[in-house]
Amino acid sequence: QVQLVESGGGLVQAGGSLTLSCAASGRTVSSYYMGWFRQAPGEERKFVADISRSGGSTYAADSMKGRFTISRDNAKNTVYLQMNTLKPEDTGVYYCAARASSLVQYAYWGQGTQVTVSS
Q1: Are 92 and 41 within 8 A, CB to CB?
Q2: Which among 1, 12, 32, 43 has most CB atoms closer than 10 A?
Q3: Among 94, 75, 107, which Cα is nearest to 1's?
Q4: Contacts by residues 42-46 (CB-CB < 8 Å, ≥ 24 positions apart)
Q5: Tens digits of per-residue pLDDT, 97-118?
Q6: In whole angstroms, what is the distance from residue 15 CA to residue 11 CA?
């Protein structure tokens, strides 16, 4: 089992950047595929990006491609989400999640970190 704690959220102006971190404890994060999700006010939680165990394969949702980059440092048990050229519609709570493989659902979730992008 793994515990996940997100950090790095905050208030930023449109066009700005933020880097979110997801620190894992318990089982080593290298055992898991990792993902980031976003939940905007009044909306369902949506996929943002994910990354394979080694970090060699990443995927981002279409609206984030070219702006958001997911990465991981398994030695630090941490996963990152670099967000550039932020837009007001990027506002929401960002969650980190872990799953044992790409064939199963995400089983472990953090508490989330709030990102607010002002226009």
Answers
A1: yes
A2: 32
A3: 107
A4: 43/92, 45/95
A5: 999 988 999 999 999 999 999 9
A6: 12
